[in-house]
Amino acid sequence: MRDVAVVAFAQSHHMRREQRRNEVEMLMPVLHQVKTEVGLDQSQIDFTCSGSTDYLAGAAFSFVMTLDGVGASPPISESHVEMDGAWAFYEAWVKIQTGVADTALVYAYGKASPGSLRDVLSRQLDPYYVAPLWPDSVALAALQARACIEAGVTSVGEMAGIAARSRRAAADNPFAQLQGSDDPDVLLKEPEIAAPLRRHDCPPIGDGAAAMILAAGDRARELVDRPAWIRGIDHRIEAHGLGVRDLASSPSTRLAGEHAGIGDGPIDVAELHAPFSHQEVLLRDALGLGDDVALNPSGGPLAANPIMAAGLIRIGEAASRIRLGEAQRAVAHATSGPCLQQNLVCVLEGDT
Amino acid sequence: MSGSSPLALPEGLRDLEPVRSIRAPARLVYTFTAGEATSRFLRGIASKKILGERCPVCGKVMLPPRGSCPTDGVPTSEQVELADRGIVTTFCVVNVKFSGSAMELPYVCASVLPDGADMGLFGLVQEVPFDQIRMGMRVEAVWVDDDELQPNLASIKWWRPTGEPDAPYESYREHV
């Protein structure tokens, strides 16, 4: 295996509605920021990979419009995944492993505001038995939260605590969409919006973008003082049919965590892509993270959840803690699909 | 599959006609965000101006501007007012009626390169028999009446020949 590291990361200031700029205008500043940070222009980047979905823009091949922000001439080696940017990150890592690339640009963006996200997300469901019923994403998460509470995995009190802790942590994150929180006992007095979920249990809907640069071995050491090395990465998927899954556990996360080597050493920081509060408990347990691990110090997806970018942002946030020397070993997690259907786990380390 | 036992349905379902298809209508409504550059362009159209934007790196004038130069990946910001006349760089003769279209067949849809632009606009070519339209033909915009101007390309009803000599192929070969 080649040593591959995150050497630069940037994200936008996530907001509920970006009505001034279109997708490429929203994305370009983060693309320019990561390239400037390590002094690379597009001709020095061997591979470019992005994650986004046409269903947000309501337009076919919408990612081609944002490729206009990359500077793809002379022609570049490029790929796109109709998934969160964390999976574009995975593809870039594989590309570098094959030896045909030493550097890669990964980016992701999600502009949810043009449509109704809760309905748009229903289009990813089983097209025969589930999607025609138009169950929205919050309702499905509520089904999972109910299953978790009944299985004794979590409680509404613990969930409110996670929401409050996350949004308070986000006070230090200038890119977060929501910052600060009432105390959990105050939150619990609010009405349920999809029982047992209250507003605080749900992620904000927002528009945002993120970009990252990866580099292999000595190239990474040339570019930055303290690369965040990818020590393990794996992703696993569960069945598409919600009815055949045990929603009160996350076996795909457990498997991905094991294969990524989480247990090979202590973890300082975990950035978990748990858009709904109860999902943090599922992920924490599946990854075997103890009380000594700082969970989502950025505020996590409860503070900003630009869809298709929020998973890549988890990797970027974890890498940034290492790059800044605040952590030695970190885990980043990304999810895709309803109720944590698909999960990616990445273990990052700094040089000792 | 030969050799496998047939699926055993409950008694009450055995004589029913199998479901061969379902209808699952889907409709999602979107509010399109034009963005800063395209908004500048569309406001120009509403006042009968075609405003391209120049790339600060390669100097090419994008039309309609979408906010970036696709070659260099940088924002365009310098607005350039273009002539509402130009060259038919390529075209097609439409012989198929699309639903909702009132156009009489056949008609011509063309890419028109306004003078000073480095990208063409799509539009109709009218006021000339369809079989006389050709690459290199000089055309001008026919705008809707002033009180019907809108911030969209329907404000240009169509393009029509100016009668000027055809442009030489070399002058638009990069835009075909």
Explain what this protein looks like in three dimensions.
- The complex is a heterodimer of chains A (352) and B (176).
- By secondary structure, chain A is of the alpha/beta class.
- Chain A folds into two domains: 4-116 and 205-228, Thiolase/Chalcone synthase (Peroxisomal Thiolase, Chain A, domain 1, 3-Layer(aba) Sandwich); 117-202 and 229-349, 3-Layer(aba) Sandwich (Peroxisomal Thiolase, Chain A, domain 1), CATH 3.40.47.10.
- In chain A, 34% of the residues lie in helices and 20% in strands.
- The longest helix of chain A has 16 residues, at 23-38.
- The model of chain A has no long low-confidence stretch (mean pLDDT 97).
- Chain B has one domain.
- Chain B contains one helix and eight strands; from the N terminus they run H-E-E-E-E-E-E-E-E.
- The N and C termini of chain B lie far apart (54 Å).
- The A-B interface holds A 18-25, 28, 31-32, 42, 55, 57-58, 65, 67-73, 111, 113-116, 119-120, 123, 127-128, 131-132 and B 22, 24, 26, 28-38, 66-75.
SSE order and pairing:
The complex is a heterodimer of chains A (352) and B (176).
Chain A: E1 4-11, H1 23-38, E2 47-51, H2 54-57, H3 62-67, E3 78-81, H4 85-98, E4 103-111, H5 117-120, H6 137-150, H7 156-169, H8 184-187, E5 192-194, E6 197-198, E7 207-216, H9 217-223, E8 228-237, H10 251-260, E9 269-271, H11 277-287, E10 294-295, H12 310-323, E11 329-336, E12 342-349
Parallel strand pairs in A: 2-3, 2-4, 9-10, 9-11
Antiparallel strand pairs in A: 1-7, 1-8, 4-7, 5-6, 8-12, 11-12
Chain B: H1 36-45, E1 50-54, E2 61-62, E3 78-82, E4 85-94, E5 107-114, E6 121-125, E7 138-143, E8 156-161
Antiparallel strand pairs in B: 1-2, 1-3, 4-5, 4-7, 5-6, 7-8
